[in-house]
UniProtKB/TrEMBL annotation:
SUPFAM superfamilies: Dimeric alpha+beta barrel
Family: Belongs to the YciI family.
A Pfam family per the record: YCII
Domain YCII-related: 6-78
UniProt xrefs under InterPro entries: Dimeric_a/b-barrel, YCII
Species per Swiss-Prot/TrEMBL record: Acinetobacter chinensis
Protein name per Swiss-Prot or TrEMBL: YciI family protein
């Protein structure tokens, strides 16, 4: 699994102009299972994606089509979940 940390590099006004397109980009990837979850940070300095395991090159290609590419920096971290709390066992090995 990957954690993708988005850090906004532009003003929130510029980010918000792309928010609708970004959400439309997210929906099919969430529906397909490639993305597990997505959300904005609080305070609003960026966002986080949880992404199903895939070749890194495939993830980079997927992210390259996100409208937020013009307003955010992406940090990709590979995580191998070994332990999970009750109700989150399905995170192991994804």
């Amino acid at each position: 699994m990957y954690i993708v940390n988005l850090k906004y590099q532009k003003s929130l006004e510029e980010v918000d102009l792309l928010l609708k397109a970004h959400i439309q980009w997210l929906k099919p990837h969430l529906a397909s299972g490639a993305l597990i979850a997505a959300g904005r940070k609080n305070p609003v300095t960026g966002g986080i994606f949880l992404v199903k395991d895939m070749p890194l090159s495939e993830l980079e290609e997927l992210l390259s089509t996100d409208p937020f590419q013009s307003v955010a920096e992406y940090e990709i971290t590979k995580v191998d979940i070994g332990l999970a709390g009750t109700g989150f066992d399905n995170l192991k090995g994804i």
